[in-house]
Amino acid sequence: MADIDGDTDRLLRELGIGGGSGSAAASVSVSVKTSSSGPPAPPPPPPPPPPSASASSGPVVKLKVKPAQQAQKEIDDIFDSVISFAGKTSNKKKTPPPVAPKPKRKVHVSSYTMQVKSPTSKAPPTKNVAAVSVPSPAPSPAPVSVGVAASVKKPSESGGIVPVEQQPVALVAFGPGLETFEVNSYGHFQVSCPHDTYEEDLEISAVGPTGSKPVEIDDNGNGQFSCSYVPTSAGPHTVTIKVNGKHIPGSPFTANVQFAAYTDKCSASGPGLVSGTTDEPCRFVVKCKEEAGHARLRVHILGPSKAEPIEMVEDADDRIINVTYHPSASGDYTLRVLWGEAHVHGSPFNVLVTGENINDPSRVKVTGDGLKGGNVDEPLKFFVEGESGAGPGPLGVRIVGPSKPEITADDSSDEGVEVTFSCRDPGEYQLVLKWGNEEVPNSPYSFTIAGEGREIKPELCKASGSGMERGVVGEAVSFVVEVPDEAGPGALSVTAYGPHPPKPIEVVNNQDGTMSITYHPIAPGEYKLEVFWADLHISGSPFTAQITGQAVRNAKLVSASGDALSEEGIKCNQLGTILVQPREGAGPGPLRAKLQGPSKADLQLTNNQDGTMLVSFVTKDPGTYSLHLLWGDGEDEEHEISGSPFSIKVEN
Q1: Cα Rg of the chain (Å, integer)
Q2: Which of 48, 183, 324, 390 is the most exposed place for a label (fewest CB within 10 A)?
Q3: pLDDT of residue 541
Q4: How many CB atoms lie within 10 A of CB 431?
Q5: Residue 564 · residue 606 · CB < 8 Å
Q6: Is the torsion defined by CA of 28, 31, 32, 33 positive or negative?
Q7: In a 3-state reduction of DSSP, which class is residue 285?
Q8: Which of 576, 579, 551 is nearest to 643 (CA)?
Q9: pLDDT in tens, 137-156
Q10: 3-class DSSP state for residue 435?
């Protein structure tokens, strides 16, 4: 029997199970709290099931529906300044935002954080070093398993050998150190491996925002390992676990290390959490009890303006933080007040700010090589940064020159709003920048684009619409001209000829590659429309339009002036002149004149081709003459122009 027992013990030891003279049993050494007496600690729990996907709770921001952690990270990436305090004095230090790309904002986001010191620092808990050996089975295997089943023998009560089937053992890791725990505390986790796995077969590393952290590994025997590490900074930590050079299932793991915070011990209050105005600072206070722990106060403000500067002043004795912010635009704001990674009670707060938008263009800084010009089709860029106190804007960009540049703006740049443009044709350009309704200092900027211009192809411009062919007096007549980019640089112009050429002719750029032309005929007849691109006829030009309806006239909008109408009058045989000037809305005329008096006078009407007409005459006999100036075809008083008939004094 002694030989059988010895063989059994040797076999069990080779299989990594261990044993004694009377029985074969697996054992594992675990770190537990012990005293000089008392029952042994219970075996470690089986690994938890894989976590199911779920959305973490948090405030809803009306930008994009995202989990709170992801929204928090994006906000932190946009702007994160840290204010540290020591005692009652404060030192402000701004940390530059990260260089990583950030989402475009539909609202301004400001994020300020402050490290609040606790009277007693929180040290990592002391690791238990007492250990006992307790019988414990390996953790329950996960769905994916590795290892080879081995058949071993143990003595039976009657002294015979009974086969024992060793089941496959899973590679699995579990514990809070792979999930979520607090900074400056031990992140414990267990690793379960096949029974013949030793510590030298494991490769375990933990890397966080500040670099790698040492990982302690305790070999409990039988392929079971207790591991831990202590992170000194909050944020995601990547834990990599390899056995014999290969990742175990789930590796690498991402642990969420959070600041210790107890928001039931923090409160925020004050008028600045309810309402505010643009002409006064908004204020509120955050009170933290000593039991709140060691954490950061974080304030995020989302709204129409950056609400900067945002100031925090700590009263270390009373653990009160006074927060002040300065909104410069009216509208709805959302304030997120967090202690560590959790919202204080009532956060996020909805704040309504009223008052006039406050802009100061002198606080806007414009930089970049794009202001100096460049070459044709070369992407050029400049940056516009609204410094603290500049106000909400918005930014307006307009470039005038030989061609219409393509302009894009991205407000996620660390240097401000990044404006990129390119010009398709050479020449002199002007850049007009406005912040709100006012131009920024040094605007407009002049620059030159060098290179070869595009070929002008007016035949590629096409006109369409009823206004090219017909219209009605008194109604707006319009048509559209399509101007593709391939038509080259130029400007669109329209000229009309007819019984009474309509003025003005409106040309509107629709910003979609088309231009709308509108005119208002006031007299019927046939009109010729000439449409030019870069002073060259477009396809189909000139066009002929037939205008129908009755002419629209208003004789009282026609006025007359001249020396013949003065009180002194004129002399016999002296040329008398009168200038007739119709104003807009007078209609097409025509102008007619009748002169009555002591003698017949030579009367002439001349069209000056500038919209005015000249009436001239010579009288032979002295006396008083009556001059009737009529507008249109009628003879009644309705057709008399303003002031008609006129009395003219003629002397020898």
Answers
A1: 45
A2: 48
A3: 93
A4: 24
A5: no
A6: positive
A7: strand
A8: 579
A9: 333 333 333 333 333 334 44
A10: strand
Quick one: tokens of 318?
Answer: 């009373």
Give residues with Cβ within 8 angstroms of 53, minimum separation 6.
none
Q: 């119709």: which residue's tokens?
A: 582
Write down the residue that tokens 């629209």 correspond to: 552
Q: What is the pLDDT of residues 316-330, one digit of tens each?
A: 777 889 999 999 889
Mean local confidence (pLDDT), 246-273: 86
Could you give the CA distance from residue 247 to residue 28 in angstroms, rounded to a whole number?
24
Bridge partners, 628 (sequence order) = 594
- In which band, very low, low, confident or very high, does the pLDDT at 411 lie, cut at 50, 70 and 90? confident
**Residue labelled with tokens 């009263």:** 315
Contacts of 1 (CB under 8 A, 6+ apart): 155, 159
Q: Are 151 and 167 in contact (CB under 8 A)?
A: no
Token pair, residue 511, equals: 């910003």
CA distance 18 to 26: 6
DSSP H/E element including 637: none
Tokens of 322: 């006074």
Of 34, 42, 12, nearest to 25 (Cα)?
12
Q: What percent of the chain has pLDDT over 70?
A: 73
Q: Are 293 and 266 in contact (CB under 8 A)?
A: no
Three-state secondary-structure class, residue 414: coil
3-state SS, 495-510, equals EEECCCCCCCCEEEEC
pLDDT tens, residue by residue, 159-187: 444 444 444 457 899 999 999 888 878 99
Beta strands (DSSP E) in 490-600 are 492-497, 506-509, 514-519, 525-533, 536-537, 543-548, 558-561, 570-571, 575-582, 591-596
> What is residue 272's three-state secondary structure?
helix
